[in-house]
Amino acid sequence: MYCVYALKSAKHNRIYVGLTKNLALRIKEHNAGRTKSTKFYRPWILLYSEELGSRLAAREREKTLKSGFGRDYLKQLVSAPVAHKDTCLPAGRERWFPKMYCVYALKSAKHNRIYVGLTKNLALRIKEHNAGRTKSTKFYRPWILLYSEELGSRLAAREREKTLKSGFGRDYLKQLVSAPVAHKDRAAVS
Questions:
Q1: What is the pLDDT of residues 29-51, one digit of tens each?
Q2: 2-96 architecture in CATH?
Q3: What are phi and psi of 69, to 5 degrees?
Q4: Exposed, middle or buried: residue 121 (CB in 10 Å: 0-12, 13-18, 19+)?
Q5: Could you tell me which CATH number the domain at 101-187 has?
């Protein structure tokens, strides 16, 4: 899985768009000054992220975010109040950014626990889990992303979440945990 992301400079009026396989590591690299094009505008804050199944699809989405439509969308995210960030774009632009729902599974790094949930913003949701803002997961922190899958509707995402919470789904996730590392990279994004 590849992740397309947008970062906002905390000190300057800059937005950076890129793609990566490891979002957390890439943000650390940007904030450490290891990227020539972003080191003068540190620190960076994650503004937007989206996981896509292939590098080609991620590259196309990155191009879209770097286009005029994409820049307008990202500027709306920056200027919109937090409660309104999920609102629709003006008529005609919805096709560029369909609302996607992400079903995900987290594994506790310290305990033998797996948590399954669904969200619109995976990066933000993982941060909330690791910050202890979720009642059901705060005692089992830190959490590591084990599995994620994007679906086009909330209904489809909810059905997939139910499947992963069933006995069959739990067995599948336990197999991912015990599988050799080469197999984990196929299904999980860290």
A1: 999 999 899 999 999 988 888 88
A2: 3-Layer(aba) Sandwich (3.40)
A3: -60, -45
A4: middle
A5: 3.40.1440
